[in-house]
Design brief:
The chain is mainly α. It has 15 helices and 2 strands.
Length: about 280
């Protein structure tokens, strides 16, 4: 049975205050995360750095001049996971968003009320922002499998722009879409996509190029894979080469009868589960 909890008015207010405070300092945190991207791109843990701790302390002291101690402590408690949430969002999209001006990120970053980034809404708003380079928007649309946006952006690009998409991101999903469009592959894409993804995944593993490729959003194409490839993608890519939320989202996309067969790997996932619960260490 699904749990349906309704946050209190106080909790919603505290979340709004924390997000407002974070928005004032988002450039600082984005600068540091993007600058350190090559260091943490394939890490599955997050520790607030010394400079981030100092920044949060400055914000805390500033809040004390406006609010009583009790609500300030609650806002700071919410604020720290917000910093961690942005860390993982930057990590999962690093190869793309490093090409986007930070003001565009700041103006289009969308939040859910449980203080997680609304990745779907954020990606759609960034793709619709015509101030962002078309190649960047195409790579992001490819990552999320937004077919209409992919086709529109492809048609609007020059041959030179199309040929330079790989300079933005060249993971197997972006390569799949560009290859299919160049070869005029027919829609629906589900007719040829699974075979290409299966082959490209195997080639990526055997070539040893995983560490130089952007993170892959398995959830985008999970539903078109057969059971064997679903298991293969999940077990070979998550958590180090896939998006943070892929395991949970793919689990819910799976039929109940096949979940155990696809996800069952007690030693691996028990270990990863422990890592996940301890990843926000300060």
């Amino acid at each position: 049975m699904a749990l349906n909890t309704v946050p209190s008015l106080q909790s919603l207010t505290e979340v709004k205050v924390a997000l407002a405070v974070f928005n004032d300092d988002i450039i600082h945190f984005l600068d540091e995360f993007i600058k350190l991207g090559d260091i943490f791109t394939y890490s599955d843990s997050f520790r607030i750095s010394k400079s981030q701790k100092e920044r949060i302390k400055e914000i805390e002291m500033k809040l004390f001049t406006y609010l009583p101690e009790s609500p300030v402590n609650r806002v700071i408690f919410i604020f720290r996971p917000i910093v961690g949430e942005v860390h993982f969002w930057v990590r999962d999209h690093y190869h793309i968003i490093k090409h986007i001006e930070k003001r565009h990120i700041m103006n289009n970053l969308c939040w859910k009320r449980e203080v997680t980034i609304d990745r779907t809404k954020t990606s759609k708003q960034l793709i619709q922002n015509e101030s962002i380079n078309k190649r960047v928007r195409f790579a992001l649309a490819a990552m999320y499998f937004y077919e209409q946006d992919i086709l529109q952006l492809w048609e609007s690009m020059t041959t030179k722009e199309r040929n330079n998409i790989s300079l933005i991101d060249s993971d197997l999903v972006v390569r799949m879409w560009t290859k299919g469009l160049r070869e005029n592959a027919a829609s629906p894409w589900t007719q040829w996509m699974p075979e290409y993804l299966s082959f490209a995944h195997q080639e990526l593993i055997t070539s040893g190029r995983l560490s130089s490729s952007g993170r892959i959003r398995i959830r985008s194409f999970y539903s078109v894979l057969n059971k064997y490839d679903k298991r293969r993608f999940i077990h070979s890519l998550w958590p180090y080469y896939a998006h943070t939320h892929d395991l949970l989202e793919c689990y819910y996309l799976s039929d109940e009868t096949e979940r155990d067969e696809i996800f069952h790997n007690p030693d691996h996932f028990r270990f990863q589960s422990k890592q996940k619960t301890a990843r926000f260490l300060y």
